[in-house]
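INFO  loader      accepted 1 record
INFO  loader      residues=188
INFO  predictor   begin
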Amino acid sequence: MMLLPNILTLSRIFAVPLLVALLWPAETGHEWRIGYLAAFALYCLMGITDYFDGYLARAQGTVSKLGVFLDPIADKIMVGAVILILCATGDIQGVHIVPALIILLREIAVSGLREYLADLRVSMPVSRLAKWKTAIQLVSLGAMILAGGLPQFPFVGMVGLVTLWTAAVLTLITGWDYLRVGLKHMTT
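INFO  predictor   done
INFO  writer      dumping tokens
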């Protein structure tokens, strides 16, 4: 439990309420932008810990069952919370809610599929494309947060939206790949 990679993973989970609080809708004004900029800094720190928890666990040979269990949960909690709060603040709105929904629904579906396959003792390793999807998704949400803190630079928000749609397309592709693997085990 007290291994450094596990502590990093847990720190991501415990940081989510602070991240949400920093993004919570408030009166439009200077302090609101500061909240977004602080949220962006925290989000980047959380992304760094996401990289290092896995890297350190593998490098130190301290991969634990707890870490394997908690890491994807921490990722999903962070991504889900950011998507929901950005929709609540109007930073993601209109047709752009579609890729946000695709991402959220895929995360729920793949989690359920993994749980079902775990009962069958079937492992579903993360594909290289799924890792790219996650990276693009994290860049997208980070850009959306940063855009809220820097409204004078609209291209930042555009980067966030373009990468959100890109992540959604990759989400559909990787989700289909996982579903195909899962269906083979459901029909046998």
